[in-house]
Every structure is written in C-alpha cells, then in structure tokens.
Amino acid sequence: MQRKGRYERLGELRYRAAAFWREYRTDRAAVLGLAVVLAFAVLALVPWAFAPYSPDSIAFAQLTPPSGSHLFGTDDIGRDVLSRVIWGPRVSLSFGILAAALSLLLGASLGLVSGYYGGWVDQILSRFFEIVLMIPAFFLLVMVVAIFGNSVTFEILVVGITIWPANARIMRASVLSLKERPFIRAAVTTGASRGRILLRHILPNAIQPVIVNSNLQIGQAILFEAGMSFLGLSDPNVVSWGQMVNAGAFHLGDAWWLAFFPGVALALLILSFNLIGDGIGKVYGSTGLIARKVDASKVTA
Q: Which of 89, 115, 143, 240 could be 172's S-S partner, Cβ–Cβ 3.0 to 4.6 Å?
C-alpha cells in the first residue's frame, strides 16, 4: 500500500510537470527567455569550450576594435573581450541562483509557519519580516565587504538574507487563504498531523507564487553582484561583467565595445529571467492545471 501511494505521488508529479510544460511553451517570450538562460548556463559550465582565448591572457594589442580575430575587440590591457564575456556568466548565474535559493528557503519556511500558526507567532514573525525589509541590502553589502573583504560567499549570504522577507510575506498570504479551504479542514478532521498538513497539502499549493517571485529575485541578485563589481567591491580574481562595464566606463569615447558587450549580456540575462518568471506566473494563474488535484485514473504506476 505504501509503495502504491509512492507510485501515485510520482505519477501526479509527472502529470503536473507535463501540464506545466504544455502551458509554458505557449508563451513564446517565456520560451525564448528559457533558451537564453540555458545558453548562458552552458557557457557558465564549460566556458573554455567556447572562449577563443584565455580570459586573463594579455598577449594582444590594447584597445583593438572588433575585428575578425577579436569579435568583441580587446580591453585596455590587451585581453580578448569576447572570451571575458563568455566567462562572465559563471559568477552572475551562481550568485543569482544561490542568493534566490537562500531567499526561497528562508522565506517559504518562515512564511509557512507564520501563516499557519497565526496568533502571537504570526505577530512576532510579521514584525521580524518588516524589520528585515527596512535593511538597505546594498549598503549592508558594502559594510560586509569592508569587514570581511571581497568574498563572493559573504555577498551571496547577505543578498539572500535581505531579500527573503518578500517571499515570506507572499507565502504567509497564500497560507492564510489556503488553511480555511475545505480540503484542509477535512485533513484536520481526519486527524492528519500538522507536519503532514503543512508539507503535503498546504506547501505544494502555496509555494507557486513564491517560486515566481524567487525567479524574479535571481535577476535582482545578479544586478546586486554587477553593482558591487562595478564599484570594485567584488572579488578581483574572477571575471565579472560588472568589472568589465566599470573598465569600459573610462573609455566610452574611444573604446565603446568595452562596456557595450558585457552590458548587453547582463541586460539580456536579467531580462530572460524576468520573462521566465512572467511565463511561470501565467501558467499558475491560467487554467489551474498545475495546482488541481490529479484524478486517480490519470495516474499511472
């Protein structure tokens, strides 16, 4: 019986995933955003397979404009700009995804507890959400760099623990609306434990808007990292688009390509994540295929 229940849950997950993709692929902009993000992810995983030169090689002429041998030109110390643009997603993607994942974990957990238990627990956690929301994340980042140095790990932690209250408030609102639904009341009446109600019934249905917001937070975190790099407050030993834009800012008149190409790559990546978030939001808000309970006849073992 336990194995049968496990097969039914797996079949339900497969059905929901298939239903999600059928709805998602109807949004061409969202599919395009996903394709761009996947392309950047491939570059981040194996940049050496696509970069024509080493990103740190200074064996070329300085400030060479785009040409056949250097498609994006060279920078002020003779490095190939295209190679450095290709290596840039490693920092941006890892920073954005890890910071948003930390925000999702903290926000979903605390919002779930706050919305379900209510009372004094909700009052204390809600005030805590508001206090953290008032913390200026960017200035806190500057303080962390001043204290601990240029560490990407600390920067990810700071961004993650300052943007999570938005997810917590969304989760809390979803839980408040769900816990009064008939199927939750039925689960309580049948004697289901609080843990089962939270994890099996409320969380899967309340997490959807939080996932959408977390996807948008990836772009927000990437922008944080680019801003820190632009100001010279990130790790100087890694290739970052923000650092490249900063270097190009001093040569806008005589070497426009230094800031243009990394700036376009950065804007394209953030826009793509926003398109993905919009697409996910449309799927969850359209026909209800993803959130509805699957009929037993549609579940295959």
A: 115
Name the one residue in this structure whose structure tokens are 């303080």: 143
pLDDT digits (tens), the chain, 301 positions: 445 556 666 777 787 788 888 888 899 999 999 999 999 999 999 999 999 999 988 888 899 999 988 999 999 899 999 999 999 999 999 999 999 999 999 999 999 999 988 889 999 999 999 888 888 877 787 787 777 777 788 888 888 888 899 999 999 998 988 887 887 878 777 777 777 888 878 888 888 889 989 998 999 999 988 988 888 887 778 889 999 999 898 888 888 999 999 999 999 999 999 999 889 888 877 644 444 443 333 333 3
Residues sharing a CB contact under 8 Å with residue 34, sequence separation 6 or more, in sequence order:
272, 275, 276, 279
Nearest to 104 by CA among 213, 220, 223: 213
**Residue 289 has which token pair?**
């295929």
User: What does the block give as tokens for 61?
Assistant: 């002429």
As a dihedral over the C-alpha atoms of residue 145, residue 149, residue 153, residue 154, rounded to 10 degrees, the angle is -40
Structure tokens belonging to residue 169:
């408030």
Tokens, residue 18: 């298939």
Token duo for residue 156: 């990810």
Residue 74, strand partner residues: 80
Task: Give the pair of three-digit tokens for residue 228.
Answer: 């820190």
Give the C-alpha separation, 107 to 204, whole Å. Answer: 15
Which residue(s) pair with 80 in the sheet? Answer: 74
Tokens of 50: 């696509």
Residue boundaries of the structural domains of the chain: 2-53+72-298
Whose tokens are 């955003």? That residue is: 33
Q: Per residue in 122-152, is it b (16+ CB within 10 Å) or e — as a string?
A: beebbeebeebeeeebeeebeebbeeeebeb
d(CA 269, CA 39): 10
Quote the pTM value.
Answer: 0.84
Fold category of 2-53+72-298 in CATH: MetI-like fold (1.10.3720)
